[in-house]
Amino acid sequence: MSWLMHTVGGFIFDRPAQKYSKDALLGRLETQQTKLLEKFRACPQTPRNTAVFTHIIGIERWAHTRLRTLLGSPLRAEEEYNNYRPANTTPFYELLTAFEDARNETVAIARAIPAADYQQRIPHNQWGQLTVAGWLNYLIVHAGAESQKVR
Known about the structure:
With 151 residues, the protein is mainly α. The protein is built from five helices and two strands, in the order ααααββα. The chain has one domain: dinb family like domain (Four Helix Bundle (Hemerythrin (Met), subunit A), Up-down Bundle). It has helices at 2-17, 22-42, 47-67, 92-112, 132-147, and strands at 121-124, 128-131. The radius of gyration is 15 Å and the shape is globular.
């Protein structure tokens, strides 16, 4: 089954990302950050919304460890995102800051990776080997899809 997920990951995340330059991907990350922060500031502070928000933050932080491998950090291939997810008891205003900080860090890491390395592949536990561009697209798609659960 994992070979199927890996193939699907390439079609969902990598292929669409190839039409964007490095600067365009960074712009999409920053634009989405603004929109999501507006959405989360306006949403009620319910347990469901908190769970969605902590999930998005955890995935974003976990992706940092993968992207940093192209900057010399070791790959922790079997590590899951749960270690990076804030507790569901975290005050909501702290989650807003945590998301903003996490997305800013994503952009900073992505800026530090040379554009020539954007086709380098880094493993994702579920979706297989994604390029840097694919990883950035994954973060955009994931956060966008998860944010639709907020009510």
